[in-house]
Amino acid sequence: MEPRLAALVARLEPVLGADRVITDPARVRTYECDGLTNHRATPGVVVLPDDAGQVAAIVRECAAAGVPYVARGSGTGLSGGALPRADGVLIVTSRMRRILEIDIPGQRAVVEPGVVNLDVTRAVRPYGYYFAPDPSSQQICSVGGNVAENSGGAHCLKYGFTAHHVLSCEVVTPDGELAELSADAAGYDLLGVFVGAEGTLGITTKITVRLTRLPETVQTLLAAYDSIEAGGAAVSAIISAGVVPAAIEMMDALSIEAAEAAVRCEYPPGAGSVLIVELDGPEPEVAAQFAEVERLCRDAGAFEIRVAADDEERALIWKGRKSAFAAVGRISPAYIVQDGVIPRTALPQVLASIDELSAESGVRVANVFHAGDGNLHPLVLFDDAEAGAEERAEEVSGAILDLCIEHGGSITGEHGVGVDKSRYMPRMFTDTDLDTMQMVRCGFDPAGLCNPGKVFPTPRMCGEVPGVRKGPHPFEGKADLF
Question: For the chain, which has fewer Cβ within 10 Å, the N-terminal or C-terminal residue?
């Protein structure tokens, strides 16, 4: 271990206890990647704080020593956002998993960052409420990670992303101070800047979340189609009719094959795609809209429609979709989970182009996506034992992101930029855009120690050598540019 880290370890052990400061090479390798395993780095030191005070103390020591640090929750991220630094400290918040307060009259709960997403719903369901953001990994992902990435989920079409359900955050700033960011605060919306900043502006230690009342009724159907284009046509018809379902999800034949192999979801045999549509709300409204959705699905060419009769059948319909990412491991030794956004109207063209890319390259792509809001999750499959296979998969993955940009979309919808997509940022944003974003980041973290190397491409700015800025920003004093 380099002397600077060794000296830092000696100062951290009295704060946390020797058992919470991990330096053993075998143990620290546990944390070398998040859910996107093709980016790996072994952290120099791993620390396991129990509370906000300890997190603040860790950050103060890192700041004093000039050592970079990265926060990590459950490690389910899919963009390398929690990729550690070999020369730095990884701050793991998984021990901070207490639900501190449930305020039903105020329709809110206060939780620590390590609380598992689904556990919030489990805690408040007896009172008739739930936590609406529902990433596919909600059984294991943490609320702190949801805040960092502004996670969404299947039901974000109607209920929005994490940002729409966070009322305030207690944050450890990059200089080690505790600060409160609130949606009700006067002045600039710093909470809005912080949520989705991928841990580059500070570390959240307490989150006040909005609770949503359980709907009066929920209706779910699965429609099977011969092709993915036909399923896309059904999505367009539903949205054009003015119906806003809680969720509209789609899977293609390859992702269905994987789900069947993993969890035996028993979707209709021979389907080129399946569409899952869920409506919730007042019973008369849902009944009327559901009849229209069922008709529209048939008109688009569904050869089979299944309607869930109860919660058990509803869970079975969702089982395949919720397991899709992990299930792909049954049909491929390795894969890249991509995340891009396109306008709904561009679905047929983009999906056709992805098929062409796959055919031309010989790289298989399984499509799973939030069809209602155009958030694609193509799974690019490869054999990591084959020479050059990962590079070909990366090329296809990048070409898919280019397709999203060309059609007026984005390089990420909910997984974040992290290290995986930072090189694509200049394809979507101008140098001026990136410089402006970097000025915001430097305003929070002028020393550049908080989750460095994420979101922005390297070098940090066009023509700039990486490192802490020694002089004024080149745009300072040029207000006319903004």
Answer: C
CA distance 443 to 411: 25
The DSSP string of 260-291 is HHHH---PPTT-SEEEEEEEEESHHHHHHHHH
The CA R_g of the chain, rounded to the nearest whole Å, is: 23
The long-range contacts involving 474-479, CB below 8 angstroms and separated by at least 24 positions, are 474/435, 475/432, 475/435, 475/436, 475/439
Decide if 96 contacts 71 (C-beta within 8 A): no
Tokens representing residue 26 in the block: 């075998």
Q: What are phi and psi of 197, to 5 degrees?
A: -80, 5
Is the Cβ–Cβ distance between 336 and 379 less than 8 Å? yes
Instruction: Identify the three-state secondary structure at position 161.
Output: coil
Long-range contacts of 65-69 (CB under 8 A, 24+ apart): 65/4, 65/7, 65/8, 65/11, 66/4, 66/447, 66/449, 67/4, 67/5, 67/8, 67/449, 68/448, 68/449, 68/450, 68/451, 68/452, 69/449, 69/450, 69/451
Instruction: Give the whole-angstrom CA distance, residue 171 versus residue 191.
Output: 10
Q: How far apart are CA 210 and CA 206, in angstroms?
A: 13
Helix 283-299 vs helix 228-240: crossing angle, to nearest 10: 140
What tokens were used for 376?
A: 């694609």
Could you read off the pLDDT of 119-143 as tens digits, one per residue? Answer: 999 999 999 999 999 998 999 999 9
ω into 459 cis (within 30 of 0)? yes
What is the mean pLDDT for each group of 10 consecutive residues in the chain (482 residues)? 94 96 96 92 98 98 97 96 97 98 98 98 98 94 98 94 98 97 93 97 98 97 94 91 95 95 93 97 96 97 96 93 90 93 90 94 95 93 95 96 96 94 94 92 94 82 42 50 39
pLDDT for 212-254, tens place per residue?
A: 999 999 999 999 999 988 998 899 899 999 999 999 999 999 9
Paired residues of 218 in beta bridges: 280
- Mapping DSSP to helix (H, G, I), strand (E, B) and coil, where does residue 187 land? coil
Task: At 474, list the tokens.
Answer: 């080149």
